[in-house]
Amino acid sequence: MAIMKQTLAALAAVLLLAPVLASAGTPKPDLKIENPGSCIAPVPEMRRNHMEMLKHTRDRTLRQGIRGEKASLNGCINCHASKTTGSVLGQGGFCQECHTYAAVKLDCWDCHQPKAGNHEAVGVKP
Amino acid sequence: MQSALTQRLRIPNFYWLAAIGAIISAAGTLAAFYMEHHGHQVTGMNNQVFWGLPHVFAIFLIVGASGVLNVASIGTVFGKKVYKPRGPLSGLLAITMLAAGLFVIMLDLGRADRLIVAMTHVNWTSVFGWNMVLYPVFFGLVGLYVWLLLDRKMYAYSKAAGTAAFIWRLVMTTGTGSIFGFVVARQAYNSAIIAPMFIIMSFAWGLAMFLIFQAAMYKWEGSQLDEEIRQRLNKLLGTFVAAVAYFVVVYHLTNLYYAKQTAFETFILVSGGIYPQLFWGGFVVVGTILPLLFVFVPALRSMASSSVLASIFTILGGLAFLYVFIIGGQAYPLEMFPGMEVKSSFFDGVVDPYVPSLPEFLLSIGGFGLFFLLSLIVVQILPFMPQDDMAQLRASGALQD
Amino acid sequence: MSEPQDRIENKSRRSFVGAAAVAGASAGVAALAPGLKLIEVAGAAPRAPGEPASSAVRWGMLIDTTKCASGCDACVKACATENGINETVKDPRQGSQWIRKIDLKDPKTGQEYSLPMLCQHCEHPPCVDVCPTGASMKRADGIVLVDRHICIGCRYCMMACPYKARSLVHMPLTEQNPLVPRGQGCVEACTFCVQRVDRGQQPACVEACPEKAMLFGNLNDPNSEIAQRVAKEKTTQVRADLKLNLGVRYQGI
Fold it and tell me: Under a CB-based contact definition with an 8 Å cutoff, are residues C219 and C230 in contact?
C-alpha cells in the first residue's frame, strides 16, 4: 500500500508540474501569418473552433457533396502556407508549430496535401 | 455447496513463463508498429490477397474463443458435473483467447490508430459492425459468468449468466462465420453453411486449446488429471473433430454440385499448389485423421500425452483449414466474365502468389503469446485450478452421466 | 507559389468558392458561370456552392468496348495524373488501381475484347453494406466513395467487391493532388472524379479517351445522351446476376 501511495504521489507531482515545466522549457509557438487580416473569422474564434469548423465541413463536403463551404482545409493551406517552403508543415509551419506546442496529433496530412495547391488538373479544357 | 470447485495454483517458474509470453507478445506488437509505420508494403499482403496470415490466426483465436466456453456451458447449462470444476477456467480462456484474437486483427488494420472510430461509428448493415457489439458483450457476459462461478455467495446465479453466455457465443460465432457467408462476390464464400460450420469448428478448436492449457496446469501443479475424465474429454474432442470433417465435406460438396464452383474447387482441392497441399496434408491428415487416431485407437489413447497431441494436431489442422479458406479464397481470381480468358495490368485472371512476411508472422504468433501470457497471469492470481471430487463423482454416477 | 497567392488576395472569391477554386482559375470560372460549353458536355450544370448532391441525379458511364483498343491505356494514365496516383511501388500487386485495362478472349469463338474496369458505382454497393464504420458510402447522386476520415483499413469492402475495384494504400504518401486526398492504410477506389464532376466537368478518363469510347452523364435525365443510348442500345452490366444495378454499363461484350 505504501508503495502505491508513493507512486501515486509521484505521478501527481509530475502531472501538476508538467505545465510549469512546459511553459518554462518549451518556447511559445512562433507563428508567421503570411496574409494578415484575411481570415474567415476573428483569431480567437479560429483558435478555439478551427477543428470543429473543419470537421463539419469535411463531412458535409464528402458525404453530402456540398462544395464552396466557408471553412475548408485547402482554404487554410492556401492562405497559411509558408511563402518560403510552400507548406503548413515543417519548422515554423503554421499548423505544425502550434500542434507540436499543444501536443495534439495532426492527422490531416496522412491523406491531405500540406502544400499550397498549384495543381493543374490534367486534360481540363480551358 | 460442497468443497470448492477450483483452487489457486502456484505456478513454478511463473516469471520465466510470463517472460516467454511477454516476449512473444512484444515481438508481435513491435511487428505491428513496424507495419503501421511503413504501411502494408512490408507484408506479403497486396490488393488481391489483402487478408493474410494475421487474419488466419486472428479468426482462429476468435472462433476458438467462443468454443472454449463450451466446457463451462456443458457444466452449467447442461448440468454435467464433471465439467463444473472446469467452468471458470473455460470462461477465462474464452476471454483471453478473444482478447488475443482481437489484438491481432486490430493491429493489422490499415489504420490501427482508429480503434475508437471503429467503436463509435457502427454501420448496422455490416456483419463486422455487428461484431463490434458482439465481442464487447461477450467479454462482459463471460466476465460476469466467471465471477458468479468463483464467488460462492453468487454461485446460484451462475446458471442464468451461463445460459446467456452460451446463447451469446452461438450468436457471436454465427457473426464471425457470416463475415464470409455474406460475401456474394467470391467463389469461396457466400454459402449459408459457413456460419454453422464455424460454430462446430469453434467447438473443436476451443476444446483443443482448453485441453492443452489444462494439461499444462496439471503439470505445473504436479498432479494428474483423472484418467476417466481425461478420456471423456478426449472423446468429446474426437466427436467435434469428426463433426468438423463432416461439415467441411458438405461445404465442398455444396460448392461442387449446387453452386457449380467446379473451377474453384479444382483449384483448392487439386491444382492450386500450396492450398491443396495444406488442405489434404494439413487439414485432412494432421487436423482430422491424426486426432481421431489419438482419441479412438486404444493403444494411442491410453498414452498420457494423447490429449495434448490430439489437441495440437486439431489446432494445426484448424490453422491449415483457415489458411486454405481465407487465403486460397482470395488467391483464386475473381470471376467477372464467366467463360472468358482474362488478362490485365492488375493481375486479373491470375492466381496470386501470396507469401507471408516476417512481421506478419510475428504479429500472428504474438496472438498466441498474448493468450498464453494473459491466461498465465490470471491463473497464477485467482483460483482456476479444477478440483475433482472423485469419490463423490463416482458415488453419484456423474462420471457416466 | 504565385497562383495561390493571387487567389488569396481575392478575398471574396476565396471564401465563396472555397475548395473548388483551388484547382485552377478556369475551373472556378466555369463553376460560377453556367452556360459555358463545358457544361453542355457534362450533361448537367455544376452545383452551386452550398448545394448538396441531389438524388435526382444518377451519374453513370457507358463504355463502348468495340471502340476500345487493346494496347491503349490513355484512361489509366489520365486517371493516375488527375488523382495523383504517382507513388513508386516495389510490388505492383500492392499498387493502387482505380481504373485498369482488361483484355478478354472468348476461347470458343476466338473473339477478343478490351475494356477499362473501374468502380461500377452500384446502386446497391456491397462495399457499403459491409463497411463496419460507414466509411464506404454512396452519395445521393450515386457516386460511391470512401470517407477516409473514418476508414479503419479493415479491407472488408475489398472482400465484398465483385470487381476488384478497390485498393488499400500500402505506403505513406506525400504527393497527393490537393483536391484528391489519399493516404496510407485507407482503402480507395475510383470516385468518378468527383472533384471534377462537381465543377460540371467530366471524369479524366472519359475526357482522355482518344476513341471517345466512354460516355459520362446523368442516367436519370431522359434527355441526356447516356440515358437515351442506354434506353435504345443493348448494354451489359458485369456480373448482372448479382442485381447490383451498376452505374457503369458496357457495350459490345
Answer: yes
What are the pLDDT digits (tens) for B335-364?
899 889 999 988 999 999 999 999 999 999
Decide if B32 contacts B360 (C-beta within 8 A). Answer: no
* Mean pLDDT, residues B288-297 taken together: 97
Chain B interface disruption, residue of C106, C114, C130, C182, most B CBs within 10 A: C130
Selected for mutation to probe chain C from B36, B344, B352 (highest C CB count within 10 Å) is B344
C172: chain B residues, CB-CB within 8 Å = 38-39
Provide the angle, in degrees to the nearest 10, between the axes of the packed helices B358-381 and B53-68: 20
Instruction: Burial-class residue B371 by CB neighbours within 10 Å (0-12, 13-18, 19+).
Output: buried
- Chain B residues lying within 8 Å of C156, measured CB to CB: 126, 128, 179
In sequence order, what are the beta bridge partners of C116?
A: C101
Which chain C residue shows the shortest CA-CA distance from B42? C170
Using the beta-carbon criterion (under 8 Å), do C96 and B47 form an inter-chain contact? yes
Q: What is the pLDDT of residues C152-184, one digit of tens each?
A: 999 999 999 999 999 999 999 988 999 999 999
Q: Which residue of C has its CA nearest to A73?
A: C19
Q: What is the pLDDT of residues C118-148, one digit of tens each?
A: 999 999 999 999 999 999 999 999 999 999 9
Pick C81's closest partner by Cβ from A64, A79, A122: A122
ipTM rounded to 2 decimals: 0.91
> Do the Cβ atoms of B336 and C106 come within 8 Å?
no
* Predicted confidence (pLDDT) at residue C12 exceeds the cutoff of 70: no
Query: Does domain C59-251 sit in CATH 3.40.50.360?
Result: no
Q: From residue A79, how far is each of C8, C20, C94, C97 by CA, in Å?
A: 6, 15, 36, 33
What is d(CA A49, CA A60) in angstroms, rounded to the nearest whole number? 17
* One-letter amino acid for residue B106 of the chain: M
Interface test with A, best of C8, C76, C143 (most A CBs within 10 A): C8
Structural domains of chain B, with CATH:
6-336+353-392 (1.20.1630.10)
